[in-house]
Amino acid sequence: MSKRRTIRGRRRRPFTLAVDIGGSHLKASVLDRRGAEVTQHVTVATPHPAPPVRVVELLGELVHRLPPFDRISIGFPGAVKDGHVLTAPNLGTTEWHGFPLVAELERGWSKPARMLNDAEVQGFGVIRGHGLECVLTLGTGFGSALYRDGELMPHLELGQHPVWKNKTYDRYVGAAALAKKGVVKWNRRVRRAIGFVSTLLNYDRLYLGGGNAPHIDFELPPNVTIVSNEAGITGGFRLWDSTMDRFFTGPQRE
After folding, report:
1. Which of 59, 93, 115, 175 has the greatest count of CB atoms below 10 A from its CB?
2. Residues 25 and 46 in one domain
3. Residue 43 has what DSSP assignment?
4. Residue 144: per-residue pLDDT
5. b/e for 133-150, b at 16 or more Cβ within 10 A?
6. Tens of pLDDT, residues 73-113
7. How many domains does the chain contain in total?
């Protein structure tokens, strides 16, 4: 390798391994210090059920296909706290409750790691940093994240909240509802869910992500935008901003 290429590589450090754990797929890529992918992301289908040991195994297989990295960012589909998983509603196993995923990956890959809910990570890849901004992800389940002037707010696990006739948001607009009810009825449900969240939060901007967001076929309000699912990867570098240090040193919020 030439000296010029080596210097260029140093200037792009530190490199962040960004892991996006989803109900349908596990994805990973390596980002440079500006959050740009240095290689195309790699992916594998999420098994069902998906116990922690199997997910960690599959993540290890993905990492072997990627270049070296200095640190790890994890987006997890559930509530997390202090590096531990509290809930994993769309991974199909109770073994996740209390699982120390951060410590497990740090031990396996010998790099420091940080973890947030997957919708929160995706939000960091799309928000503008002004006013009250909300991110909702429409995938296997229903993810949510909230920010005020770019600062992450306490996590609201809206996916597990009742929304309509004893159905949670997960059951009401998740992938199973889309498959069962069809695109037309699912869109009516999504429109209704957006209205509920708007009334609840009175947000300035709403971003819709997740693998099923492209199925939306109704006109959205001007302050609502469909965003790329790639943000679930690229948002990972923001977990290492100095402004985020307080989330990962000492007691953390859910």
Report:
1. 115
2. yes
3. E
4. 97
5. bbbbbbbbbbbbbbbeeb
6. 999 999 999 999 999 999 988 999 999 999 999 999 999 99
7. 2
> Residue 39 is part of which domain span?
3-120+236-248
Same domain, 151 and 60: no
The pLDDT value recorded for residue 228 is: 93
What's the pTM? Answer: 0.91
Residue 254 lies in a domain: no
Give yes or no: residues 213 and 241 share one domain. Answer: no
Strands (E), the chain: 16-21, 25-31, 42-45, 71-76, 80-81, 84-85, 113-117, 132-138, 142-148, 151-152, 162-164, 167-168, 205-209, 224-226
CA distance linking residue 232 with residue 75, whole number of Å: 7
**Residue 11 binned pLDDT confidence (cut-offs 50, 70, 90):** low
Q: Is residue 253 part of a domain?
A: no
Whole-angstrom Cα distance, residue 97 to residue 79?
A: 10
- The DSSP secondary structure of 57-95, one letter per residue, reads HHHHHHHTTS---SEEEEEESS-EETTEE---TTTT-GG
What element of type H or E holds 228? none
Residue 6 pLDDT greater than 80, yes or no:
no
Peptide bond into 49 cis (omega under 30): yes
Asked if 89 and 31 sit in the same domain, the reply is yes
Residue 157 has pLDDT above 50, yes or no: yes
C-alpha span between 58 and 208 (Å, rounded): 28
